[in-house]
Amino acid sequence: RDLLQGLELFNSRITLLGASLGGGVAVSFCAQFPEKVERMILVAPVGLMPQNALPWVTRLHSSFGCLGRIAQFFLEKCCAGCVEQYLLDSFKYSRWAEFFQDDVAKPYFIQNYWNTLRNFPFSDMLNVYRRVRDTSDCKILLIWGEDDRIVPFETSKAVIDVLRRAKLVSWKDVGHEITVGNGGKLVSSWMNQALLNFLSGR
Q1: pLDDT class for 174, splitting at 50, 70, 90?
Q2: Does residue 55 contact residue 117 with C-beta atoms inside 8 Å?
Q3: How many alpha carbons lie under 13 Å from residue 35 in its C-beta half-sphere?
Q4: How far apart are CA 186 and CA 196, in angstroms?
């Protein structure tokens, strides 16, 4: 809201685009200010992920309380290599993992990574999605890679089950890094065309 006011856009209806965690933020904004959103583009958004898709340390914390905090300590002290390998495996179609490697070695990375996993409702936003369904008339485009290892493609069905008016565009052999392409394939061009078609009402 403050950003829109600063840009003098708060009195206009806007188009929101959110990818991954940003998709969850976009859905939350639309749920809170449905009258402000004309279109919403969600790229593999979080919020309705199956619990078994979350990293094991997140499930440990939510299931075992104090033991989860012990897991946090060991994660921060000992598991940078595990996080690095998780990123490498998850972004196998692009060079995104390479961008993370330097950050993983920095002392703040693991703590911030853990806190994000622990505190953001990756799987617990059903009521927020329902609020968008019930209070907003915005048009919705979903974009997904069918080999997404971060927010699994099966999550798209959960989203569409709630937001039935959403249109889904997906690509095979593409992972979570769909916004930057996948090893030379033309995903970026396809995605751009999908965005143009949606924004022009086609």
Answers
A1: confident
A2: yes
A3: 2
A4: 16
What distance in Å separates the CA atoms of residue 159 and residue 185, rounded to the nearest whole number?
27
For the stretch 26-75, pLDDT in tens is 999 999 999 999 999 999 999 999 877 776 555 555 554 555 566 656 65
Q: How many CB atoms lie within 10 A of CB 41?
A: 23
Mean predicted lDDT score pLDDT of the chain: 80
Collapse the DSSP code of 10 into the 3-class scheme (helix H, G, I; strand E, B; otherwise coil) and give the result. Answer: coil
Written as one string, the DSSP assignment of 16-83 is: EEEETHHHHHHHHHHHH-GGGEEEEEEES--SS--GGGS-HHHHHHHHHTHHHHHHHHHHHHH-HHHH
From residue 181, give the alpha-carbon distance in Å to each of 95, 126, 153, 171, 193. 10, 29, 17, 11, 13
Q: Which pLDDT tens digit goes with each residue over 134-172?
A: 999 999 999 998 988 889 999 999 999 999 999 999 988
User: To which residue do tokens 């708060």 refer?
Assistant: 10
For the beta carbon of residue 198, count every other beta carbon within 10 angstroms. Answer: 18
Pairwise CA distance, residues 49 & 144, whole Å: 13
- Whole-structure pTM value: 0.80
Give the span between the Cα atoms of 58 and 54, in whole angstroms.
6
Q: Give the pair of three-digit tokens for residue 3.
A: 């950003």
